[in-house]
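Ticket reopened. Same input as before:
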Amino acid sequence: MHDITRRTLLSGVALTALAPALRPAIAAADIAPKRGGILNTILTPEPPILVLGINNQAPTQLAGGKIFQGLLEYSFKLDPMPQLAKSWSVSDDRKTYTFKLQENVTFHDGHKLTADDVIFSIMKFHMELSPRARPIFSKIKEATAPDPHTVVLTLDSPFEPFLLMFDVTACAIVPKHIYEGTDFRTNPQNQKPIGSGPFQFVEWQRGNFLRLKRYDGYWVKDQPYLDEIIYRIIPDSQSRALALQTGQVQMTQANDIEPFDIPRFRAMPNLEVELKGWEYASQLSWIEINHRVKPLDDVRVRQAISHALDRSFILNKLWFGIGKVATGPIVSTTRYYDPSVAKLQAYNLDKAKALLDAAGLKPDGNGVRFTIKHLALPYGEVWMRLAEYFRTSLRKIGIEVVLETTDAGAWAKRIGDWEYETSTNFVSQFGDPTLGVERTYVSTNIKKVTFTNTGGYANPKIDALFQTARDSGDSAVRAKAFTEIQQILCEEIPQIWLMEMQWPTVHEKKLHNVIRTAMGPNAGFGEVFFG
Amino acid sequence: MNFARIARLSAQRIVKMVAVVLAIAVTNFLLIHAAPGDPASVIAGQSGAADPQLLAQLRAQFGLDKPLTTQLAIYIGHVLQGDLGTSFRQGRPVLGLILERLPATLLLTGTAFVFAIAAGITLGALAAQRVGRVADSLITVLALGFYATPLFWVGLMLVLVFSVWLNWLPSFGMETVGADLHGWAAVADTAQYLILPALTLGLFYMAVYARLTRAAMLEVASQDFVRTARAKGVPEGRILRRHILRNALLPVITFAGIQAGQLIGGSILVETVFAWPGIGRLAFDALLARDYQVLLGVFLVTSILVVLFNLLTDLLYAIIDPRVQTA
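Engineering reply: fixed in the latest deploy. New output:
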């Protein structure tokens, strides 16, 4: 049963009986889950609001993932697993999805969670709020609830990655009775979020802590095991590291701990460092290229830059081995990654210089071929170091880089307005190239907003291939298109991909079942317990 | 004492104050909007996915789709009615956010203030009394050290010693979350958390006061009336307390007045290192997120308080020392 492939899962074989079996077996065999205990951990930076959909920042997903739930979760291999949907099936024409919901699910205010809440969340709430869900959920022609525990969604045409849109971060199920007919963004209940997850909101002292407690009416028997989760707001990275070192918090995640501190935590006998759990987000970091700036529009120049960067150095010396070296536009954990074609320019300064020579960019008396600006990513120290490494590396092939620094607000504005020459960025792929890769490379998505094709790369062939992959319900057709896309993009290198990002989850060894799915620390933590 | 004169002065000052505060509000508004980026683009940048519709929705919700002059007029109109607006990001009233964070800041800065004055004056006096001797050199070096050392470094070192090595005191936060303590137990709990940040913040000012006190006391000690007192046979301890120290305190009090005005703004640095939930960090986070309303609110409240403190200081001068002319 463990050999079920993604293909059969998504193509409509009867899944009802099989789905629950996919849930990973509970932790180490010799330890039985135990009730009780308070988990102290960290939330960085402090999110503005905890309702997923209203806000989708990383820390919102972390805390919101405990309060809210989606229909599905995903295994490390991105196979769907049941959450609020206990089973699901896909029709033969791949247009109709039927979800059977768990019974006995209640929201934290005691209201029953039914098919109405699910349909409201998909068709109204996220349709209005979410830039990710909007273009995909608008393909839903009809959403019906034949009974209170069944949801039937009919698409206007097949959309193969559809099932990847139902985890809590993409489509949290919110209570219809609270949000219907209100302005979702200003609903007063946003301050005291009500979901159906294992933990319910208790108290949030801004700048200090967020306190969640066990929801006694949670639908999974005996869960959650923890009594409380307390998220401390600690803005300084060294203070966070100290909090972990002294045991004042028992767990950190995401970017709580700077990469250069990880080696010393690996050495501490009571702590465990886990890197799994980011397969769904699958973030890829890159040097962001603005194709409107000459000579960056010349493919030889981009190849030269790619040849000039030692990605192993970046991984090992800047990120201390956390992550993987990028091999192309699609992350190796994302579906349709093709290792046979994904090959990037190897580190080779001579090749880089030869390419620049061929592009007619000869060095002047000072050895400088041309000068470009680089807008450093203001997301912490390690990104600044990367910017400095970029400058040093490019100087070796005769490109002078002028670093510009800014804060997060100005960075987002300038990227969105295309007011940069080069910058650094890292972007989520959400499991499938159509969901998270396409947006950076198709010319129809050249928009003045962050996370679109802000670089302005345009290639009709790539546009057509992504369209084929998007429209086809047949995974073989999609696989062929994505292979070709990877081939072309590796050659054209529209963005200089650097690393597949991972983020360390550091926790005390006595804390069990922490990272179990591709949602990593964003998961609900119903199964987590102190042994 | 001429109360009519003081009343007239106060009335004049209050009219000026209102004008100053309004001018500050307008200037702040324009300055903040001159910074690149707006809250909508920040939110879009943090969300991992964005489209033009999201930006349009957010800008409309925040009122950022209106011309700047209209936004300014709306804002000033609301301020005049005592409404500081609503946080764009958090969707909560700004006044509530500020009042929620103010007590933490006042507790921290107030404690540091009292500690700095008490310890600073004591050390300064001791040094002046033993001028040129070992104790004086020791205190002078110590004061110079704390005066010159960056706050965050002092903070980190204190944490290293007292939290990591000795494990006596917690390194961050302001209470044991989830302990549900009440009464004296809660006070004792918070006091534990307060020691390190208050010390970090207080040590710098302590150094300032110690140096000021020492210098002023040495200056006063060489004046004629001290010599006269000594000639009259007044005991040395009494001369030190009643003649020298009292007169030497004037510059200290002036400086303390300035520091008191800054107390309200909190200390971003100390609040950040110790994760202290004060108003300085509220302002800093609001700046990074371009949460204009919150930032303007903090500026407005602090500027009102600073202006008020100035008024109080001036009036105090006029009452205590008639030679001081209140302009």
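The CA atoms of residues 380 and 519 of chain A lie 23 Å apart. The first helix of chain A runs from residue 6 to 10. Please confirm and we'll close it.
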